[in-house]
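Table S5 (text form). Sequence records supplied for joint modeling of the two-component complex.
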Amino acid sequence: MKKTLFILAGFLLLLGGCGEKRVVLYLTDWCGDQEEIAIREHIALFEKEHPNIKVEMENVSWWRMLDKLMIATAGGKTPDVTRVSSEWFAPLAAKGALEPLDEYFKKDNFDIEDFEPKIVNGWCRFNGKTYILPQDIDNHAMYYNKTWFDKLGIPYPDESWDYAKYIEVCKKFCADTNGDGHLDKWGTTGDPLPENYIYAFGGRMLSDDNKRCLMNTPEALAGLQMFQDLVFKYKIAPTREDSAGVFAARQFTNGKAAMYFGGSYESDLTFAKELKGFEWDAAPMPKGPGGRASRLGGSNYGIMSQSKHKKEAWMLLKHLTSTEYQTKMAAMNQQVPARRSAQAGYLKVNRPPKNKQAFLDSIRDGVIPPQVVCNQEMKAMLGSCYERVSIGQENIKDIADKTVEDVNKLLRTE
Amino acid sequence: MKLSKIRRREALDGFICISPWLFGFIVLTLGPMLFSLYISFTEWDILTTPKFVGLANYKTIFFDDFRFAQAMKVTLIYALTSVPIGLVCSLALAVLLNQNVFGMRTFRSIFYIPAILPPVAMAMVWLAIFKPHGGILNAILGIFKVPEIGWLQDPAWALPSFILMSVWGVGGGMIIYLAGLQGVPTQLYEAAEIDGASPWQKFRNITLPMISSTIFFNLVMGIIGSFQVFTSSFVMTQGGPAYATLFYVLYLYQKAFMFLQMGYACALAWILFIVILIFTLIILMSSSAWVYYEAEVKK
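The corresponding structure-token record, covering 713 residues in total, follows.
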């Protein structure tokens, strides 16, 4: 008798469990430790507001994330919501892996205008449809070692600087302190993003219709030349041999290079941990013949088209791109918020760099990298072009011509 | 041909006995291989259905892809230099470690360790060794007044760096040679000594023929392994600088999993398969001239 009762009670419990329909949402992200704490807190708030939804987050490395999402889509087992990089938005959207959001905006009267329009138009739309919402913007300004500037009595960089001034000042920092015949102090770092020079000299990767590669135009060639001259002609940046195995940011944080073109998020996520023993700040990028220009990038969130809980996914998406969350991420990690209503919060952060406006301004000055379906392969081709230029053994025009031929062939398959 | 009842029964039993293996082979090896052969004639990005394009992938690979030519060149140079160097070094090492000296077991372990280390960890260590400024290798060469070498940063030195690195991993081959050396009958050496043979004559006329089958095995495995080098270049150079270390399998990986061109990657894989097959067949056919098996009666 007792046994039967137990079984009955068990059944009832089971039934009760079934009655309360709990939705589990899967989220993929690539955040680091510090970001993960913030996002987990924010997700907990969401779960509290929506007790019937549970969010399972999986943290994937940035490099593997596109492959993972593509393969998951092919296998029919995708996450519901995912972080999306501006670097590989186009291939993901083109293959139909993302859910278009325009209907959701209409239904909810969602204010898309609050997001930086340049970003939304730059990499959130594909073939006229909006697929993702921007979270933070990865843009560049020039970090500089204030203490070192003071020591040499050099005035801090400001918005009047152009590349001629930049080269002139950089030279003053270069030195061979241990006398081994190699420079070990430099004006600037070995730059991981030569695009910054190409843009500043008025060059672009592709034509506006994404049909032709423009790397061999006089402007782009001037940018590539500048990138090479930093090392070989002006000798103000470390050579490939000097910087082997040392990230550009670390050349700045360990006091080897006086200036560094970097993103706002590096202030907290890299510098706070590694940088010791000197004061530093940020300044606008130097002006080139093509104006003040630098590369824009950023992270976003979107809904996967195969999600079975799109209504709940949309709620989570709104939560993850809300003004509150972007303000919080800015306060914690100095990520430049993509929502204009959250940018005031970023400016209020009371940690270096003092000149946060330099980063906000660089959204205006920034250039949106081309968004093409074959983005990954094109990036590899351009990367090889930059590498050849940095080795400095071949004629730059030849390298660029070969790259243009290579990329154009690829673009024809689009 | 008609089989007797018992014969047929025996054949059936045989098939039943190997059926687990047969099943695994067909489902896990032959099936995927045939599928990949089919995919190599299509354009496929994993997400959409494969589109049949005939020989287009092969045509592009052979006539319109300088990266394929570069990858093949890099891999061939690597295979044709690292394998002979590896064979000689591991054999020499095995001969040295085959002496009866105190502490020999420890030495054998030390030389074998690189073969069991995870390749990624090994790659990280070599990155530090090859660092141009302040790296260990350049520091040692500096003592002999050798000018600094760019190693992995210099397109001319990147591939030689990898070949140099492969020598470090000869422990795997060494172990197999050691086993071979231990199997050489001592009476042959004794007889040779009585006849007054020099150590070199003993090595040339006894050791080498007696372990020729081991050399053959190491040669085949070495060729196959060196055509499939991937991890070290993936971790250390990503194929750079200027494609100097674009190994074939690395290029295949990039096409398949970074650029999602599965059809093209499958075609690359089949070409690699054929190339390895040809090399193996050449070695196999030449083996009758130089490989000696004790059990085999010479005609």
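Note: The domain at 64-290 of chain B is CATH 1.10.3720.10 (MetI-like fold).
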